[in-house]
């Protein structure tokens, strides 16, 4: 389906100790596009210095990066763990400089700090202290996120991105020569993870992980008789099995903005990625269908 869309450049700004997060956020932005581009008429373009900057001479590297990728960004995601990163001649950390430069221009920013475990001997005390100092400053700057795993970070970011697109960007509606569209349903699947504390019979504190498969209607009309099935990969890995779930395989009605979630008992097979096919009935009597990759 061909449709007009607004392109939003999202700068991923961070020091060098969160490489996994940078790659995960790049993937998360494209997954966001898979789920929401058509309905919201927006495409989020991940921008990273390693993929979008070019070789150039004649000025300080940060000034060149500002001109190439920072000033043209429409929003920014900042990630910190144990390092504040390289310092500019005025003593400001380069990543902090990029965050402040974009946000001060009235553009949206999302800031996240990692609480993941780290080997103490790998920490540079000066760098870590600078991160904590910036974190204290950030408390007066706005609301930031904290995460315990890369998976939790991507879940939080995708949720924040949806709210940011809807509430902060104020994007113009692309013009279309077509007549005004009738309300349609658009069903997507996503996952939600949850940790709960439990005391066992010996009085020891245990952490239990729970996973849920969530069905959400991001359209404007009710979806009826929503059904789903797991699709085996081709070729199918030896021992592959679909995700184990309750017997329910259909939802009679799914209203816009009223997601329904189902617990996942186990993620079996050799991969954490699974392909799911979702079908539903539209109000006009037609059928909707979506083939989507889900990661557990």
Give me some keywords for this one.
alpha/beta, about 30% strand, about 300 residues, Rossmann fold, 6 helices, 12 strands, five-stranded parallel beta sheet, Immunoglobulin-like, 2 domains, four-stranded antiparallel beta sheet
Largest sheet: 5 strands, parallel
Number of domains: 2
Element-by-element helix/strand order: EHEHHEHEHEHEEEEEEE
- N- to C-terminal distance: 29 Å
Question: Level of helix content?
Answer: 25-40%
Assembly state (oligomeric): single chain
Low-pLDDT stretches: none
Q: What structural class do the secondary elements suggest?
A: alpha/beta
Q: What percent strand? A: 25-35%
Radius of gyration: 22 Å
| CATH C-level name of the largest domain | Alpha Beta
What is the spatial order of strands in the main beta sheet?
Answer: 2-1-3-4-5
Average pLDDT: 86
Using DSSP, what is the number of strands? 12
Q: Given the structure, what is the number of helices?
A: 6
Please identify, by name, the CATH architecture of the largest domain.
3-Layer(aba) Sandwich
The CATH homologous superfamily of the largest domain: Toll/interleukin-1 receptor homology (TIR) domain
CATH topology assignment of the largest domain:
Rossmann fold
The shape, in one word, is globular
